[in-house]
Each structure stands twice: as C-alpha cells, then as structure tokens.
Amino acid sequence: MNAPFTAVHFTTYEAAKRALFEISPEKSDDGKVMVHATAGAAAVALAAVVTSPLDVVKTRLQCQGQGVCGCDRYATSSIGKVIESVVKRDGYAFPCSCCCYLLVHL
C-alpha cells in the first residue's frame, strides 16, 4: 500500500502545513519547525488510518489458502466481501488495532 499511503500522506501534509502557517503567530525558525513537525505527524496518522484496513484486506487476499496467516479461503476477490468477512470474523478490531499501533509508534 505504498502508493495510497504516499498519496494521502503528501496531500494531508501540504494541506495541514498551509493551514498551520496561516494560523501560526510565530514567523521564526522555531515556529516553522513546529509547523512542519505537526503537519507531518497529522499526515502520517491520517495516512495510516486510511490505508491500514486496506492493507489488512490485501494481505488476507494474498495469503488465502496458504495457511500462512490464518486466512480463510474467500469465495470472491471482491474487496467489499472480504471486508465483510473480516468484520464478521474479527469484529471491528482491525481498525482499532490500527489506531493502537499509531498511538504506540507516534
């Protein structure tokens, strides 16, 4: 999921940076560093939240039937059907685990 992550990351970073520069009262170098750091953290967090569930689905589809990661064999390769299956099997734990991952690693 490198391309979707990068697309969300750069789009969010640029939007957040622009918005933070508009409201930032400081024009010094220290203020610029904080704006870049805050915009970068927000961009990474949003990109991970958006793409991690898709990455779970991709991995499940790739591993199905191989007994690699405990994946079931799916009757279809439809992303929507696989998401339904994952939610039935694991509940809403997989989006929550993505958020926990972010909290630990940020």
Question: Which helices and strands occur, and which strands form pairs?
Answer:
Elements: H1 2-23, H2 29-63, H3 79-90, H4 93-105
Helix pairs in contact: 1-2, 2-3, 2-4
Notes on the protein architecture:
The protein is mainly α and 106 residues long. The chain has one domain (2-105). Helix content is 77%, strand content 0%. It contains four helices and no strands. The longest helix has 35 residues, at 29-63. The mean pLDDT is 77.
In short:
With about 110 residues, this protein is mainly alpha-helical. It has helices spanning about 1-25, 30-65, 80-90, 95-105.
Rg estimate, integer Å:
18 Å
Order of helices and strands: HHHH
Count of domain modules: 1
Mean pLDDT over the full residue set? 77
**What level of helicity do the residues show?**
over 70%
Could you give the distance between the termini?
19 Å
The number of helical segments is 4
